[in-house]
Amino acid sequence: xxxxxxxxxxxxxxxxxxxxxxxxxxxxxxxxxxxxxxxxxxxxxxxxxxxxxxxxxxxxxxxxxxxxxx
Length: 70
What we know:
This protein is of the alpha+beta class.
């Protein structure tokens, strides 16, 4: 499954890299592509292992806010 999340509080491209690094280390997440310019991340994940609320929580725990776009 692939979902897009709006990311708040990113200040630079390093923020985007931090989000991708943390998400891609999480079991069930296949790929994360975060864009600082668009203030969003596209996450491909296995919905049997992780859900949207857990992804949002991971992003929050590293210092950013996120909300599901679609």
